[in-house]
Write a structure and sequence with these properties.
The structure holds 2 protein chains of 2 kinds. By secondary structure, chain A is α+β, with helices and mostly antiparallel strands. In chain A, 23% of the residues lie in helices and 22% in strands. In chain A, the strands form 2 sheets. A two-stranded antiparallel sheet of chain A has the order 1-4. In chain A, strand 2 and strand 3 form a beta hairpin. Chain A is globular. By secondary structure, chain B is of the alpha/beta class. Helices cover 21% and strands 27% of the residues of chain B. A 5-stranded parallel sheet of chain B has the order 3-2-1-7-19, with helices on one face. Chain B has a 5-stranded antiparallel sheet with strand order 21-22-25-24-23. A 4-stranded parallel sheet of chain B has the order 11-10-9-15. Classes of the chains: A alpha+beta, B alpha/beta.
Chain lengths: 65, 385
């Protein structure tokens, strides 16, 4: 499972990091870092990653199957 | 691992899909059924009043994924519930049994048109947004009834297209929510971007059939090519008639998202938080509350302790290109307790300390993550006694 991040659409709310703080993090200016950029999300982290995708209020995160 | 009791979620919404996902995360292996009223399934609504009004290609990017849920999806609205027999009936005649029920049917736009009066525009669903976007394409003037979050976002979309727009309300823009300090700044900013504001002395009514204007209590009538009602929302509780679950404010829940009926829980815009002590009943129909309540409702439906607070008061809006993000209790009365930066320059961090010892933090025109605002609200000192 891969996740795509639409960085221009991201508004830096940080609700993804609430759901999966080890996968998504934001600095003080709300710039997003995604830990698995370009690679697969490991199986055991997928539920948290999906919860983070679901929680994004601007639909900037998508699960690519 | 919890016992495999069948859980029924009514409402294919952010709250509904989040609850379904959390049931599985908590190890629930029993049946999960999700009933949705909209044919294209769950989608994200905050972009409807922003990017969707600008860009048709955004329509395809809003869906909330259901993969990995192992849920039975029924796309037909719920029309009745029997909480004694523990069943829900759908419009297409199905009757679904449940052991635990999670109510997540959300809310719909409040409409102001008289019975039979056609052509009222609102903004709540993807269809509403598509229709409004099409109408914006050839409108020469616009009127927005309601100067809350949604009304000001719609007015901003009009202004961004160069459409002269007038907003009508009894209170100044965002005043009921953000208080007079920020409202005064926002009103000035909106005016500088071509958003005119008319303060009405009482309820305005829609005129024309189809709707083409607004009549104010003083007899003034305003007309425009486009008239949009942004007058708040009404919880979707018609299907709960006779269950005792719902009132005017929606479905009352406690800190565990439990209702007054055994086996029934609720989350999201359909709910209100039942008051206790000095706290009154309170609706808080915001995105992050839907997520927090859905997680709590899922845990409670399985008989597990809540994962955290069922309240997460975070909201944001955009006025004429300026983003405002807020963590904490509303409204914001009087002057802020602390200010970093300058509101007039459109870049400030502010806090308001409330009498109950809590604080509200506001990022005005600054890109700040919710975690930073929560930290600011938590470290802010209460007012001196």
């Amino acid at each position: 499972m891969k996740i795509s991040v639409d960085y221009p659409r991201c508004e830096g709310h940080g609700l993804c990091a609430d759901q999966a703080p080890d996968i998504f993090s934001l600095d003080d200016d709300a710039e997003l870092t995604y830990r698995f950029e370009g690679t697969d999300v490991p199986g055991e982290r997928q539920p948290a990653a999906r919860a983070a995708v679901n929680a994004c209020p601007v639909a900037a995160l998508r699960v690519l199957s | 691992m919890t016992a495999p009791r069948p859980v029924l979620i009514v409402g294919e919404s952010l709250a509904g899909t989040t609850a379904a996902r959390h049931l599985r995360t908590l190890g629930h292996t029993g049946p999960v059924t999700l009933i949705g009223a909209e044919e294209h399934g769950a989608y994200s609504r905050p972009p409807l009043s922003k990017v969707v009004l600008k860009d048709p290609s955004a329509d395809q990017t809003l869906g909330l994924a259901l993969d990995g849920l192992d849920a039975d999806i029924i796309r037909s609205p719920a029309v009745a519930a029997d909480t004694r027999r523990r069943t829900v009936t759908t419009a297409d005649g199905r009757r679904i049994d449940y052991d635990a029920l999670i109510v997540a049917t959300g809310a719909e736009a409040r409409r102001l048109a008289a019975p039979g009066q056609r052509g009222e525009l609102v903004l709540r669903t993807l269809e509403d947004a598509r229709l409004l976007r099409a109408r914006l394409a050839d409108a020469g003037s616009a009127l927005v009834l309601g100067a809350g979050f949604l009304g000001m976002e719609v007015a901003s979309a009009c202004a961004a297209r160069g459409i002269p727009v007038t907003v009508v309300d009894t209170d100044r823009p965002l005043e009921r929510i953000l208080g007079d300090h920020l409202s005064a700044e926002i009103t000035a900013r909106a005016a500088a971007h071509g958003i005119r504001f008319v303060q009405a002395t009482g309820f305005a009514t829609l005129t024309g059939d189809p709707v083409g204007g607004v009549a104010l209590p003083d007899g003034t009538e305003l007309t425009a090519d486009l008239v949009v009602t942004c007058a708040g929302e009404v919880p979707c509780v018609g299907w709960l008639t006779g269950t005792g679950l719902a009132g005017r404010l929606g479905v009352g829940i406690d800190d565990a998202c439990a209702t007054t009926v055994p086996g029934v829980f609720a989350a999201g815009d359909v709910t209100y938080l039942r008051g206790h002590g000095t706290q009154p009943d309170r609706r808080a129909p915001f995105w992050s509350n839907a997520v927090a309540q859905a997680r709590t409702a899922a845990a409670s439906a399985l008989g597990l302790p809540p994962p955290g607070s069922a309240q997460d008061d975070y909201f944001w809006t955009e006025v004429a290109g300026l983003t405002v993000k807020i963590v904490g209790r509303l409204p914001l009365l009087g002057e802020p307790s602390t200010v970093q930066g300058s509101v007039a320059d459109g870049r400030a961090l502010l806090t308001w300390s409330h009498a109950d010892g809590t604080s509200t933090a506001v990022a005005y025109g600054l890109r700040k993550p919710v975690a930073a605002l929560r930290a600011l609200a938590a470290t802010s000192l209460p007012p001196a006694p």
